[in-house]
Amino acid sequence: MDAKTVDIHYNKHHLGYVKKLNDSIKEFPELHNKTLEELLTNVEKLPKELQEIVLHQGGGHVNHSLFWSVLKPAPMSEPAGELAVAIKNDFKSFENFRIEFTQAVEAVFASGWVALFADPNFNGKLSIKTLKNHESIYSVRGPGNYPLKAILICDVWEHSYYLNYQNRRNDYVAAFWNLVNWQQVESLFK
Ligand code: MN3
Q: Distance from CA of residue 88 to its chain's centroid?
């Protein structure tokens, strides 16, 4: 990923979501000491006029925060340890996991995210999910309606690749795989 894209992505797009979220709740001091996870998992309890903006801007913030945290320059090329075993169990092989995740990225219509989730009530069972627009990582639930834990995420909004790759989303996802911080993904998995 080139420096200019990452600079604009982080300092303009991501910052914009944070500013709009903070502006939207300015007049609601009772919300100021709640975590974003609390706000996003109880959106229906928020004042009506706030619900959509908190979902969009707050979802944008938490998804981007995870995204930056799972990237780093020159990482290990594939996972090790417990995560490697889990990927092999749930996707047959690391290569097959990468193919399935990449296909999900390529299949996103318009803007969204693709994330890898672990199921805390099912021995960490892994699954790949697509989130539309800024649907947040906290919105994804397991079979018993408890939240799944996101451990890896790829931003599939055009602003994350258009400057450098134009419409070539496949080149962007190839670059993404060169930057995934597998140590961080494994620590989230654990
Ligand atoms: Mn983005």
A: 22
CB 87 within 8 A of CB 97: yes
Cα of 89 vs centre of ligand 1, distance in Å, is 31
Report CA(90)–ligand 1 centroid distance (Å).
28
Nearest of 34, 153, 40 to residue 101 by alpha carbon:
153
The crossing angle, in degrees rounded to 10, of helices 81-91 and 182-189 is 80
For the chain, domain boundaries:
1-190
In the CATH scheme, what architecture does the domain 1-190 have? 3-Layer(bab) Sandwich (3.55)
Q: Which residues surround ligand 1, an ion (CB under 5 A)?
A: 155, 157, 160
The two tokens of residue 125 are: 């069972």
- Measured at the CA of 141, the angle between CA 136 and CA 145, to 5 degrees, comes to 140
Instruction: State the pTM of this model.
Output: 0.96
Query: How confident is the model over 92-126, as pLDDT tens digits?
Result: 999 999 999 999 999 999 999 999 999 999 999 99
- Give the pLDDT band of residue 144 (cuts 50, 70, 90): confident
Q: Cα(155) to centroid of ligand 1, in Å?
A: 6
DSSP 74-106: S--SS--HHHHHHHHHHHSSHHHHHHHHHHHHH
